[in-house]
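Retry 2 of 3 after timeout on previous attempt. Resubmitting structure tokens to design endpoint.
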């Protein structure tokens, strides 16, 4: 199974600052540093799904002149129904291949949901990968992960996930994995299924789901490493939070404001999630090596230099300039809500050829062909039905494991072959 549908939907330490440089994100621009400006702004298509009827309504609303786009963005944030794949030009945006923003909801009273699930599973059934890293950062709801190494995990943004909001999956030489939505009423513990709504109404409460999935390329020398999976977030400091005046930054990888994400990196990069109050200012010092810098606005609006970037738009920054200064919008008529919420991707280009097809990211077309041959020969494992019980899945994986080794970090929240929470 080559999951074109899944591709469509989901899909080295930084050098120290120079002596005259202020730490990243700590106030005024450093002396002698030039600002990083926007090269261009794009808006990628937002596709209706989960539930599709919400997405269609939001699309029609976005066509209304004036307030339509900002109102559609606000309603999408509230009720879901769309996915936005940002297909990057991997040569120009290295090491970043693709960023997908999901916003969905699953309501128990939705009359069309059960019908849709008969032909469109609620999640991403078992599919193969080789040669890159998937970073899945959950903002609402969560996922259940199972793979052909025998690892099962739950992670997400609800209390039941214990703060483990991000999965860092190094696909390496190859594995199969499934990511199915962890559907339970918002705010529930996942066991009693009691949500935030009072009493019996909690069982009617929708399950909100929102996340980013980033495809991150790796150097050619690491593409056939053993696959491994780890979780970030929680009390272990693996994804530290830096708070400023009206700003909050989650450091998923790399450095900001004197704090560093704990995940081991195969190239020089940073992944930062920033929330800003209306009118606030956020600064980040970009190393000279970070020639690639991409800013995606999830909510609100920002200004970078003289360029305004509205919600659901992607800004590609110029290659030069160290000081990135972002100002959050004040809100108002035609501008949507005040403040801003965005994701910053910055890194050093790998400078290597890229051949990406389906769910594989390698360096040459021949390597991609070999990856699919290995998949067909079951060297990455064999696909399983997402409806299998944990016992049935364990038996299947024991019979058809990934042949490229088992890699899962100690203390990463993985549950090897365990039943977990149902």
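Retry 2 succeeded. Sequence:
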């Amino acid at each position: 199974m080559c999951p074109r549908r899944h591709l469509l939907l989901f899909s080295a330490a930084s050098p120290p600052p120079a002596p005259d440089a202020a730490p990243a994100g700590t106030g005024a621009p450093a002396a002698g540093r030039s600002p990083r400006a926007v090269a261009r702004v794009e808006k990628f298509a937002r596709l209706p799904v989960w539930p599709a009827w919400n997405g269609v309504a939001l699309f029609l609303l976005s066509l209304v002149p004036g307030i339509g786009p900002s109102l559609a963005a606000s309603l999408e944030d509230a009720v879901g129904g769309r996915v936005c794949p940002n297909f990057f030009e991997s040569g120009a945006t290295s090491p970043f291949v693709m960023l997908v923003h999901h916003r969905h909801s699953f309501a128990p009273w939705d009359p069309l949901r059960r019908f849709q699930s008969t032909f469109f599973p609620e999640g991403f059934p078992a599919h193969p990968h080789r040669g890159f890293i998937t970073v899945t950062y959950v903002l609402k709801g969560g996922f259940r992960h199972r793979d052909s190494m025998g690892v099962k995990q739950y992670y997400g943004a609800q209390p039941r996930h214990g703060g483990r909001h991000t999965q860092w999956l190094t696909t390496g030489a190859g594995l199969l994995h499934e990511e199915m939505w962890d559907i339970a009423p918002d705010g529930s513990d996942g066991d009693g299924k009691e949500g935030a709504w009072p009493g019996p109404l909690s069982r009617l409460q929708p399950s909100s789901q929102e996340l980013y999935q980033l495809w991150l390329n790796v150097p050619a020398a690491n593409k056939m490493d053993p696959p491994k999976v780890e979780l970030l977030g929680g009390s272990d400091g693996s994804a530290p939070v830096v708070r400023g005046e009206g700003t909050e930054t989650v450091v998923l990888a790399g450095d900001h404001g004197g704090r560093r994400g704990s995940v081991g990196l195969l190239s020089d990069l940073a992944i930062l999630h920033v929330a800003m109050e209306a009118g606030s200012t956020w600064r980040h010092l970009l190393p000279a090596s970070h020639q690639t810098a991409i800013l995606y606005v999830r909510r609100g609006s920002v200004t970078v230099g003289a360029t305004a970037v509205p919600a659901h738009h992607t800004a590609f920054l110029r290659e030069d300039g160290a000081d990135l200064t972002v100002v959050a919008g004040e809100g108002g008529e035609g501008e949507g809500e005040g403040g801003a919420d965005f994701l910053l991707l910055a890194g050093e280009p790998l400078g290597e050829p890229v051949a990406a097809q389906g769910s594989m990211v390698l360096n040459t077309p021949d390597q991609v062909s070999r990856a699919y041959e290995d998949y067909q020969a079951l060297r990455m494992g064999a696909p399983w039905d997402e409806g299998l019980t944990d016992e049935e899945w364990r038996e299947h994986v024991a019979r058809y494991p990934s042949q490229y080794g088992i890699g899962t970090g100690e203390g990463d929240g993985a549950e090897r072959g365990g039943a977990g929470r149902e």
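Attempt log closed. The first helix runs from residue 4 to 9.
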